[in-house]
Amino acid sequence: MTFKDEILQGIPKQLPEAKPYDTGVNHAPKRKKILSAEEETLALKNALRYFNPEHHATLLPEFKKELKDYGRIYMYRYRPDYKIYARPIAEYPGKSEQAKAIMLMIQNNLDHAVAQHPHELITYGGNGAVFQNWAQYRLVMQYLAEMTDEQTLVMYSGHPLGLFPSHKDAPRVVVTNGMMIPNYSQPDDWEKFNALGVTQYGQMTAGSYMYIGPQGIVHGTTITVLNGFRKIKKEPSGGLFVTSGLGGMSGAQPKAGNIAGCVTVCAEVNKKATKTRYSQGWVDEVISDLDELSVRVQKAITAKETVSIAYDGNIVDVWEHFDKENIKIDLGSDQTSLHNPWAGGYYPAGLSYEEANEMMANNPEKFKEEVQKSLRRQTEAINKHTENGTYFFDYGNAFLLEASRAGANVMADNPELGREFKYPSYVQDIMGPMCFDYGFGPFRWVCASGKPEDLQKTDDLACEVLEKIMKNSPSEIQQQMQDNITWIKGAQENKLVVGSQARILYADAEGRMKIASAFNKAISEGKIGPVILGRDHHDVSGTDSPYRETSNIYDGSRFTADMAIHNVIGDSFRGATWVSIHNGGGVGWGEVINGGFGMVLDGSTNAQRRLESMLFWDVNNGIARRSWARNDEAIFAIKREMDRNPNLKVTLPNFVDESLF
Ligand SMILES: NC(=O)c1ccc[n+]([C@@H]2O[C@H](COP(=O)([O-])OP(=O)(O)OC[C@H]3O[C@@H](n4cnc5c(N)ncnc54)[C@H](O)[C@@H]3O)[C@@H](O)[C@H]2O)c1
């Protein structure tokens, strides 16, 4: 059967052969047992409703075993035999080019070279699911292959509810993931309702079909490191950045440090993770001895080398040793997985990796004590460095939160609302005021032809557009423009593509709209194939997350999620090809509401109309909210936008004379 035929058949009428558990791929961890006996029966009934009753007797024991062995029913038997990867758009069956583009993006999220646990349909973050099971995958691909541009597919946490009549300007797909009644949004609620098969954790770009591999995180980290050095008014050259973690996301730090041009030291306790990043060329050197590390670092600083060094050991030891050796750290952060402190996210100092793993499983109480003791030690050492001028920031990994819970000295001496900790988060000081409040965020695109030469042409077009805009940009945003021009010029050389032919850069509404228009024109002239636009949810408007994306909102509204909802509703009726809204992502279930879009450009005048309408809203929605929160940079940005667009009229805040209080 051809690839097209397999897609068109959906769930096969005949039972496919059972598939043995493939030990050659990276599998999701076994999920904890959480369902009662009655609930297990319900989960099995829920799973079987995808299949003809004639197969139930065969499938029931198999699904029962999956639930017992893995804590979830993935329906491995229904995994397709064809290779899953972002094939060029012309290879998909269908009646709608927009739907074919969505198929391409789904295939990319499940590509073995891209996805973290491909057989469990998990793209990244350990739990970021595209679908809950293979029946959903097969049905969705079939629906997309059958649908027309006058229908909309409705996705209910991985489950395709069906095709509904709509119209050409409506989204082809509407996605929700993990939306819960707020009182049912504790971490164990995810475990339970996901095991029942009624919800899933979509992370940000997993369940919204917008993941582009590690390129996104490399770019975001580069921008953070560059702006971190600006914050302390120091050139990256000859500067020292100390941090930890060479895992999924954290592994981007040394590469980003190299692109920024500083000396990076990144500690990692897991030798396997270090080996992977070293073999990929994401870190230049590995050193296991602290004295050797000090000598090497001092030499690199003096010679103003651009170099990244992995320290094969615990980050706490690096902070302490550099203090003893009087090594001045310019930028400091941490990217251990402290959102998950008791189950392997953070390895305490004083224990070997193996000892820690053993204690975690066999003596969890003692392990918790060790983690907290280590966090107190780490904070004490960081505090000594910051007294000597180090700029330390929390990298969205809950370091400050867990350190505070451990009783470490991280609370501010004079706390203000929203500024309870001694140190800022990267959004509070860097990303928020320097990028998001001005409208700069992670715009991305994918060349649907799958041709690297199309990507090269779009890179050139994007660069031309940004250079032209920069000539007349106000001084406030010149730096952001320049960083992204530098990035796009180096993008081909840095070989960032894994999976689909994708690119990311930070741009504001003007930049995003003008770049998209240039692409649409090039498509209409036959110079490139169709282009799919999108963005990370970690952006100006799409995400309400009080300790990350909206941590620099100080009017008390950072615990509200209206902005993310407005964003997705507004994108839907302004021409997005698909939209998504999720609970959870990055910082955890119940901690964030995030959304995004995808938009197909086909060179038509309709595509031009849609991109202008939707991209304008997609960015200015968040700037309006940020300006109402009294953020100066956002007030500047929205006033500038109102000057340019007479149809935009935003409510602006009045400031109160502090002496009145
Ligand atoms: N702000 C952002 O943009 C952003 C982006 C990505 C990740 N994060 C957060 O950063 C954290 C890391 O993400 P990840 O995907 O890299 O996770 P990961 O679990 O893949 O990697 C973390 C690494 O830290 C190592 N580690 C743990 N304790 C250590 C210690 N004491 N010393 C040295 N190494 C230690 C682990 O061995 C692991 O390899 C997460 O909490 C994530 O949510 C934030």
UniProtKB/TrEMBL annotation:
It catalyses: 4-imidazolone-5-propanoate = trans-urocanate + H2O. NAD(+) binds at G125, G126, Q203, E268, Y395, G586. One of its GO terms (molecular function) is urocanate hydratase activity. One of its GO terms (biological process) is L-histidine catabolic process to glutamate and formamide. It is found in: Cytoplasm. It is an enzyme of class 4 (lyase). InterPro entries: Urocanase, Urocanase-like, Urocanase_C, Urocanase_central_sf, Urocanase_CS, Urocanase_N, Urocanase_Rossmann-like, Urocanase_sf. Gene3D superfamilies: Urocanase like domains, Urocanase superfamily. Pathway: Amino-acid degradation; L-histidine degradation into L-glutamate; N-formimidoyl-L-glutamate from L-histidine: step 2/3. Binds 1 NAD(+) per subunit. Residues 436-639 form the Urocanase C-terminal domain. Keywords: Cytoplasm, Histidine metabolism, Lyase, NAD. Its EC number is 4.2.1.49. Residues 213-430 form the Urocanase Rossmann-like domain. GO terms for cellular component: cytoplasm. Residues 84-210 form the Urocanase N-terminal domain. It holds the Pfam family Urocanase_C. Its cofactor is NAD(+). Catalyzes the conversion of urocanate to 4-imidazolone-5-propionate. Belongs to the urocanase family. This is Urocanate hydratase.
